[in-house]
Design goal:
heterodimer, A: mainly beta, ten-stranded mixed β-sheet, five-stranded mixed β-sheet, about 10% helix, B: Cytochrome Bc1 Complex, Chain D, domain 2, Cytochrome Bc1 Complex, Chain D, domain 2, two-stranded antiparallel sheet, two-stranded antiparallel ribbon, 12 helices, peroxidase (chain B)
Chain lengths: ~260, ~325
C-alpha cells in the first residue's frame, strides 16, 4: 500500500530502497546485538579475607584494636560500574542490574558485566544502591526486598551487612550487628569504590578482564572512622553512625591482580 | 535524483512504521479491562505513577483479594483488612492501637486508607517512600502480620487460582514481591473518598444545613485549613501539634526517619475526611473523641462549646458512606 506512492524511476532508487530495507530490518532485533563486535567482558572476583586468610565464619578473630569478633554474615550490594580508558574516556554500565555479594555463597562473589574492548586504567563501583532505586517502588532481581537487605519501615536498602558476636559487645547474647545504609543527605552511606587496574593488557573483543579484589574485613573497623565493638556493637538505622562506618568501606577493597583471559 | 531523495524518505517512513508495529510487545494479559483513575474534578494531580502500574478491573479485584487474605500473615489471622476495616474508612474501628500476631499491640493508631494516590510517603512518620513498598512493613513487622515476604510468596504461589489471576493481570503466573505489591496498590488506589456530603455540596448536588454551614465557617475562620487543606483535608506535611512525648513509646515521629532534631515529634498531618469514623485520634490514638481533640487545641485554637458542636456537625459531612462498600 505504501509502496504505491513510491515512484521507482530508475535502478538507483530501487537500489536505495533495497538498502533502506536491509538497514532498517535488523533494528528490530534485540538491542545490543549490533555492538557485539566491540564487546568484551569485565569480571570482578571478590575475596573476603580476615587477617590475610579467607574469611571463616567459625573463628574468633582479634581486631587491630584488640577486640574480638566472630563474624557470621557478610553481604554487600554493588552496582553502577564505571571505567576509565587509558588515555581518556569513560564507560559506564549504569543500566546494569545490581549484584548482592554474600560471603556464604561463593558464586555470588563473582560479578560479570560487558564493557567495550579497549585498554583501561581503573574501574569504580557503587557499594550500595543509588537513591532513585530506594524510592521508586518495589525492585526485582538482587534488589528484591525479600533478600532481607531492605528496611521496610524506613524505605531503603541495607547496603552492607556485617553480623557476628563478640565477647566485647555489651549487647544481649554479645551480638554485633552492622546494617549500613541510608540514602538521605547528609548521611548517604553509598560509597564509590575505586579499583585501579593500570598496566593491564589491552582487552580485545570477546575477552574477559578479570579483576581479583581482596576484601579485608578487619578494615571495616579501621580507617577514617575507627570503630569499636565495645562502644558501637550495633548500627541498624540510616544516619550519622551508619554513614561514619561507610567511610571506612573504600579501605576494604584492594586489587591484587588484573589480567585478560580468553 | 530528486526521486531518489523522495523514495528514500518515504521508505524510511514506511520502515519506521513497520518497526513500530513489529517491535511493540503484545501484552499477554489479553482481555484486561483498563480502568481510568477516578480523579475528582478540580483536585490536584495524583502523584502515584500509574504508567508503572496501569489500573485494570482484574488488577483491582486481585488486590482486593490479597487485602482480605489472611495468608499474608504468619498465622492466617491478620489480613490487611484486620486493621484497615472498610466500615471504619479502613482504620481500626474503636482502637487506639491495633493489635497483631500473638496478642501484641502495635505502637501507633492505624490510619484510614483513602486518597492514597496523592501521597508520596506513608506511615505517620513518612518513612515509606512509595505506596508499593507500604505492604512490606506490616507484613514483616513481628507485632503485626509477623510473616516473611518469602513465606507469603510461597503460600500464594502454591495456590493455582492466584497463579491464574496473576498471569492474567501481569502476564506471568509467578507471584513476586513486585507484582504482589502492585496488585495491592491497585486496590488501595481506587479507594478514592470524594463522595461525602461536603463533596456533594461542592458539586452543587446538595446543601449544608444551617449547623453544617456554620461549622464550615468556623473551620475556615479558625484556620483549621492551614494544615487540613481542601480538598484532601491535609497538606501532607509533617507538623507538631504540641502533643507531648508519650513515654510508653518514646515515638519521636519524623525524626525517627530523618535523624534531624528539627523533626522531633512531627507527624504527618492526617486528613479530616471520614474523621467521624476514624476515632480514636492522633498517631497513638490517645484522644478518644473530638471533644478530647478540641481540648488539646484549647491553648492555641480556643473554641466555645457552641463552636465545638457546630464544627463537629461540619466534620461529620466529610464522611463518605460509599468508601465502606469498596
Amino acid at each position: 500500500m505504501y509502496l504505491s506512492y513510491v515512484r521507482i524511476e530508475n535502478r538507483y532508487s530501487a537500489l536505495t530502497l533495497l538498502c533502506w530495507i536491509l538497514w532498517i530490518l535488523p533494528s528490530c532485533q534485540k538491542a545490543g546485538e549490533d555492538e557485539l563486535p566491540d564487546q568484551a567482558n569485565l569480571e570482578f572476583r571478590f575475596h573476603p579475607l580476615m587477617q590475610g586468610t579467607p574469611l571463616s565464619f567459625s573463628k574468633t578473630y582479634t581486631l587491630p584494636n584488640g577486640e574480638r569478633f566472630e563474624p557470621r554474615v557478610f553481604k554487600f550490594y554493588s552496582g553502577q560500574i564505571t571505567g576509565q580508558r587509558t588515555g581518556g574516556g569513560t564507560i559506564n554500565s549504569s543500566g546494569d542490574p545490581y549484584y548482592l555479594a554474600d560471603a556464604a555463597q561463593p558464586a555470588s562473589l563473582t560479578i560479570k558485566t560487558s564493557i567495550p574492548a579497549g585498554s583501561y586504567q581503573s574501574f569504580q563501583f557503587l557499594l550500595g544502591v543509588d537513591s532513585a532505586r530506594n524510592v521508586s517502588g518495589v525492585q526485582s532481581g538482587a534488589l528484591d526486598p525479600l533478600k532481607g537487605m531492605f528496611w521496610t519501615w524506613n524505605s531503603g536498602y541495607i547496603f552492607a551487612k556485617l553480623e557476628g558476636r563478640s565477647p566485647d559487645a555489651t549487647t544481649p547474647n554479645n551480638l554485633v550487628e552492622y546494617h549500613i545504609g541510608g540514602f538521605r543527605v547528609p548521611y548517604n552511606a553509598a560509597q564509590t569504590i575505586s579499583l585501579p587496574v593500570s598496566g593491564t593488557a589491552q582487552l580485545k573483543a570477546g575477552q574477559t578482564l578479570v579483576v581479583d579484589i581482596d576484601v579485608e574485613l578487619e578494615k571495616w573497623f579501621t580507617g577514617p572512622y575507627p570503630l569499636s565493638i565495645a562502644s558501637n556493637a550495633v548500627s541498624m538505622t540510616p544516619g550519622e553512625l551508619a554513614w561514619n562506618i561507610s567511610r571506612n568501606f573504600s579501605g576494604l577493597f584492594t586489587v591484587t591482580q588484573s589480567s585478560v583471559e580468553e | 535524483m530528486k526521486s531518489i531523495y523522495y523514495s528514500t524518505l518515504i521508505l524510511l517512513l514506511f520502515a519506521l512504521m513497520q518497526w513500530g508495529i513489529s517491535c511493540t510487545k503484545n501484552d499477554a494479559g489479553g482481555n484486561l479491562q483498563s480502568i481510568e483513575f477516578p480523579k475528582p474534578a478540580g483536585w490536584p494531580d495524583p502523584v502515584y505513577d500509574f504508567s508503572s502500574n496501569p489500573l485494570t478491573k482484574e488488577g483491582v479485584a486481585l488486590g482486593r483479594k490479597l487485602f482480605f487474605d489472611g495468608r499474608l500473615s504468619k498465622d492466617g489471622n491478620f489480613p490487611c483488612v484486620s486493621c484497615h476495616q472498610p466500615f471504619a474508612a479502613f482504620a481500626t474501628f474503636e482502637h487506639d492501637l491495633s493489635h497483631g500476631f500473638n496478642d501484641q499491640f502495635t505502637t501507633r493508631n492505624a490510619p484510614g486508607l483513602f486518597n492514597l494516590a496523592w501521597h508520596s510517603n506513608f506511615h505517620h512518620d513518612g518513612g515509606i517512600t512509595h505506596l508499593d513498598l507500604q505492604p512490606l512493613a506490616p507484613i514483616t513487622a513481628p507485632n503485626e502480620m509477623a510473616e516473611t515476604i518469602e513465606n507469603v510468596l510461597n503460600k500464594l504461589n502454591a495456590d493455582a487460582d492466584y497463579q491464574k489471576e496473576f498471569a492474567k493481570v501481569f502476564g506471568s503466573p509467578e507471584i513476586t514481591t513486585a507484582n504482589m505489591t502492585k496488585a495491592l496498590s491497585q486496590y488501595m488506589l481506587i479507594l478514592v473518598s470524594a463522595n461525602s456530603k461536603y463533596d456533594q455540596v461542592k458539586r452543587g448536588q446538595a446543601q449544608f444545613d444551617v449547623n453544617q454551614e456554620a461549622g464550615y465557617k468556623i473551620f475556615l475562620e479558625k484556620k483549621c485549613n492551614s494544615c487540613h487543606v481542601e480538598p484532601l483535608f491535609t497538606n501532607l506535611e509533617f507538623m507538631s501539634n504540641g502533643l507531648p512525648l508519650n513515654p510508653a513509646f518514646n515515638d519521636v515521629g519524623r525524626m525517627r526517619i530523618t535523624g534531624s532534631k528539627a523533626d522531633s515529634l512531627k507527624f504527618k498531618v492526617p486528613s479530616l475526611r471520614n474523621v467521624a469514623l476514624t476515632f480514636p485520634y492522633m498517631h497513638d490514638g490517645r484522644f478518644w473523641n473530638l471533644e478530647d481533640v478540641y481540648q488539646h487545641y484549647n491553648q492555641t485554637i480556643p473554641l466555645s462549646s457552641v463552636e465545638r458542636s457546630l464544627l463537629t456537625e461540619f466534620l461529620k459531612t466529610l464522611t463518605d458512606e460509599r468508601l465502606g462498600g469498596m
